[in-house]
Specification:
With about 450 residues, the protein is of the alpha+beta class. About 55% of the residues lie in helices and about 15% in strands. It has helices at about 5-15, 20-25, 30-35, 70-75, 120-135, 170-175, 185-220, 225-230, 235-300, 305-385, and strands at about 55-65, 85-90, 95, 105, 110-115, 140-145, 150-155, 160, 395-405, 405-415, 425-430.
Length: about 450
């Protein structure tokens, strides 16, 4: 068993070497005789253009182009610098994962079709969508940072899920999994106990992600939790209540924050109304006192009233004008506070919605990964359980389960077949002898 992990690094470096030479290195001495002759599968990556599949993680950066000619302050500020007309959009920059439906969810821009396309094509589509939605040109860069894992099940020492590497073949995956094992290997009994303990935890993780995704979809679409949870069966009510309670507490915190912001906006609007009333009162006072001063001036010219009375009236008019200016300033300040309160409320609402969309996409991906882990674990348990192996084995068939649109297809393969991201490699043993292993 210890020999196979040691040769993994060597196998990863000898990928271009002919298969006949690889057999001379690995002690699969009769492997070519027990594996049926099959046509190797062709990878979509052999064309030199990597097509995206669900589960691919893309690092995307979006830079918005701003016309500095329309911004005189920016032109003066950068008069002695090179033109910096592209600015990063942090809300559209980050790692994004291709969803099971083949789309890439982008905040503000919606879902971008990604499956079957290259990263460059997706970046071009994002730029075009940005132009259509925002009305400005954007420069988009992308990098494929992670691909879906590959899995192997069957009579190997370490069945499970492994990181995908470009150019990986079934032979590489066999080596990473520790090579073939004997039917009487004590490892099987140990692994059975481990997988049985792991199975319940994997099932709970899958069910938890299912519940969370349903609740997030309901929150996004404005539906009730009861509507969202319809159709979920064979799940513990205690687990449903636990997950539902956690999401309810988060939702209540959102609602309290929103209520606080709405109250702040209402207070600002009320203060604006009061300031406007004071301004109108001040304006009316100025008109009345102005008319009184004009009347007193006419009487003072005829010596009907004294200059002292006229002076007092003039001072009252001056005070009224000053109070009017103060009220006008209060109105301007109140308008700014109302605008700021509305902007903060709108920003919080948008950030909350984007957060729900991003969390939903993450939970859907985690549910898909948990489902794959659960299927693999159930298969391993069924194979390792007593009676799961029909005696000793002499040969096996290799099949690759690969995503095909919205479904899956099973393809025949050989040890030299190329593995693609998200593939599941199945080794189906045949009864009648002994597997060739160390």
């Amino acid at each position: 068993m210890g020999f196979y992990p040691k040769i993994h690094g060597l196998l990863m470096r000898i990928a271009p070497i002919p298969f006949s030479l690889c057999v001379a290195v690995i002690p699969f001495s009769c492997l070519a005789q027990v594996v049926q002759s099959q046509t190797p599968l062709l990878s979509t990556q052999q064309t030199g253009r990597i097509s995206l599949v669900p589960g691919d993680r893309l690092s995307i950066s979006v830079f918005e182009k701003v016309e500095l000619d329309n911004d005189k302050w920016a032109v003066r500020k950068r008069a002695d610098r090179p033109d910096q007309s592209f600015y990063p959009r942090q809300d559209l920059t980050g790692d994004f994962i291709v969803q099971p439906d083949g789309t890439l969810p982008m905040p503000l821009l919606g879902n971008i079709r990604a499956e079957g396309r290259t990263g460059g094509e997706v970046a071009d589509d994002i730029a075009q969508t940005f132009l259509a939605v925002v009305g400005r040109t954007a420069r988009v860069t992308q990098a494929l940072v992670e691909r879906p894992t590959v899995s192997i099940i069957g009579p190997v020492h370490q069945p499970g899920t492994f990181k995908y590497v470009d150019g990986m073949s079934v032979m590489h995956l066999l080596a990473i999994a520790g090579g073939l094992r004997q039917s009487d290997d004590n490892w099987a009994r140990v692994e059975l106990a481990k997988e049985q303990a792991k199975l319940s935890a994997t099932l709970e993780r899958y069910q938890r992600r299912q519940i969370e995704a349903r609740l997030l979809e309901a929150e996004r679409d404005g539906k009730s939790d009861d509507q969202a949870l319809l159709g979920l069966t064979n799940i513990s009510p205690a687990l449903v209540d636990e997950v539902r309670g956690g999401r309810t507490r988060i939702r209540q915190a959102y609602q309290q924050r929103k209520a606080t912001l709405e109250a702040a906006r209402a207070i600002a609007e009320e203060a604006l109304d009061i300031a406007r009333e004071r301004f109108e009162e001040g304006k009316a006072s100025v008109v009345i006192r102005g008319e009184r001063v004009d009347a007193l001036k006419a009487l003072a010219a005829k010596n009907v009233v004294s200059q002292t009375i006229l002076l007092e009236a003039s001072m009252e008019l001056s005070d009224a004008k000053e109070r009017k200016l103060e009220a006008e300033s209060l109105v301007s300040e109140a308008k700014l506070r109302v605008s700021s309160a509305k902007d903060e409320l709108a920003r919080f609402t948008l950030e909350t919605q984007v957060g729900i969309d991003n969390l939903l996409a993450q939970r859907l991906l985690e549910a898909s990964e948990a489902r794959s882990d659960l299927d693999a674990s159930q298969t391993i348990v069924s194979m390792l359980a007593p009676g799961g192996e029909a005696g000793a084995l002499t040969a096996f068939d290799i099949e690759i389960v690969r995503r095909d649109g919205s479904g899956w297809q099973t393809l025949p393969a050989s040890v030299t077949s190329t593995v693609e991201p998200g593939d599941l490699v199945k080794l189906d043993p045949k009864p009648g002898g002994t597997i060739l292993a160390n």
